[in-house]
Design brief:
Blueprint: H1 15-21, H2 24-40, H3 47-71, H4 73-76, H5 94-115, H6 118-138, H7 146-150, H8 152-155, H9 157-166, H10 171-194, H11 196-202, H12 207-210, H13 212-233, H14 242-263, H15 267-272, H16 276-304
Helix pairs in contact: 1-3, 2-3, 2-9, 2-16, 3-5, 3-6, 3-9, 5-6, 6-9, 9-10, 10-13, 10-16, 13-14, 14-16
Length: 310
C-alpha cells in the first residue's frame, strides 16, 4: 500500500514558490501606496469595494513580478542575489511562470475594472505593460537610465488607488507619483553600489557598471536634493498637513544627510567597511518612503475626524 503522505522533491514547485514569483516584498509596497492613494482621495469608497480594489491591484503587482522573473530568468541564474528564486532554482519552469503571470494580469485588470471603474482597470493594465515590456524587456538591458524611466511603474500604484476612488487623475495623485518616481533611483543606486559585481557579471547596465561608483554617488545626491522640495511641498496640497510636513522635513533632512555621506566616501573607505554606509542608506530609504505615505494616511484620518488643521 502506497504512502499517502507526499513530500515534494527539492526541485518541485511548492505553494511558496508561486508566492515568491509575485515578489511579495515589492507587492507590499504596491499595496500600501495604492491603499494610501485610495484613502486620501476626496471621494469616499465603500470598505468592501476598497478591499476588492486593493486585492486586484496586489494581484496585478504580483503578475508583473512573475512576468519579470520569467523574462529575467537568464540573468537571475547569474546574480547571487536572485539565483535562489523559483525559476533559476529549477522549481518552477519559465513556461509555468509566464502562464501564471499572464493569467493574473488578465484577472486583476478585468476584475478591477468591473469592481470599480474602467479607467482604474486600464491604468493597472498600462502599469503591468510598462513594468514588463518597457522596463524589463527593453530599458533594463539597454540603458543605465533603466531604473530612472522604468521606476515609473513602481510609482503608478498610488495613482491607481486615487483613480479607483475618483475615476481620474489630479495634481495630488501626480504628486504622489513623483514622490515615488524621484525616490526610486537613489534607492536602487544605493543597492547597486554594494551589489555592483552582480550587475557586472549579469551584464545589466546599471549606472555603477557603465559610469562607475563615483558618478553614481553624485547622482544619488542630486536626486536627493531634487526629491526633498517635492516631498516637503506635498504638505501644502489638499492631502498634506502639519503632521506630514513635519515628517517630510525630518525624513528629507536625514535622506540628504545620508546622500552627502555616500557622496563624500572614497572606494577605499567603502571597501574597508564593506559598504556599511551604502547599505544603511538603502534600508533607510525604505523607511523614508513608508514614513511619507504613513503620514499622508494619518492626515486623511485626522481630516475624517474633523481634526485637520490645513
Amino acid at each position: 500500500m502506497s504512502d499517502i503522505s507526499y513530500i515534494p522533491q527539492d526541485n518541485e514547485a511548492r505553494f511558496g514558490d508561486y508566492i515568491a514569483l509575485l515578489k511579495p516584498r515589492v507587492m507590499s509596497l504596491v499595496v500600501f501606496t495604492a491603499f494610501v492613494g485610495l484613502v486620501v482621495a476626496p471621494n469616499p469608497v465603500h470598505p468592501f469595494v476598497g478591499f476588492v480594489a486593493i486585492l486586484f491591484i496586489a494581484l496585478g503587482g504580483g503578475a508583473s513580478g512573475a512576468l519579470n522573473m520569467w523574462y529575467d530568468a537568464d540573468i537571475d541564474r547569474i546574480m547571487r542575489r536572485t539565483r535562489s528564486r523559483p525559476i533559476p532554482a529549477g522549481r518552477v519552469t519559465e513556461r509555468e511562470a509566464l502562464g501564471f503571470g499572464l493569467a493574473l494580469s488578465g484577472i486583476s485588470c478585468v476584475m478591477l475594472a468591473l469592481a470599480t471603474n474602467v479607467f482604474a482597470g486600464l491604468f493597472l493594465a498600462f502599469t503591468i505593460f510598462f513594468y514588463v515590456v518597457v522596463y524589463t524587456m527593453w530599458l533594463k538591458r539597454a540603458t543605465p537610465q533603466n531604473i530612472v524611466i522604468g521606476g515609473a511603474a513602481g510609482a503608478f500604484p498610488p495613482m491607481i488607488g486615487w483613480a479607483v476612488a475618483t475615476g481620474g487623475i489630479s495634481i495630488e495623485s501626480v504628486a504622489m507619483f513623483l514622490l515615488v518616481f524621484l525616490w526610486t533611483p537613489p534607492h536602487f543606486w544605493s543597492l547597486a553600489l554594494f551589489m555592483k559585481a552582480d550587475y557586472d557579471e549579469a551584464k545589466v547596465p546599471m549606472l555603477t557598471s557603465t559610469h562607475g561608483r563615483t558618478v553614481t554617488r553624485k547622482h544619488i545626491l542630486a536626486y536627493a536634493l531634487v526629491l526633498a522640495p517635492l516631498a516637503v511641498g506635498i504638505g501644502f496640497t489638499s492631502i498634506g498637513g502639519p503632521l506630514y510636513f513635519a515628517t517630510a522635513l525630518v525624513m528629507n533632512a536625514l535622506f540628504i544627510k545620508g546622500a552627502i555621506e555616500i557622496y563624500g566616501r572614497s572606494e577605499a573607505q567603502a571597501e574597508a567597511d564593506k559598504y556599511a554606509v551604502e547599505k544603511r542608506f538603502f534600508y533607510f530609504s525604505l523607511i523614508y518612503l513608508f514614513a511619507h505615505f504613513l503620514a499622508l494616511l494619518a492626515e486623511a484620518g485626522l481630516s475624517y475626524l474633523g481634526l485637520g488643521i490645513w
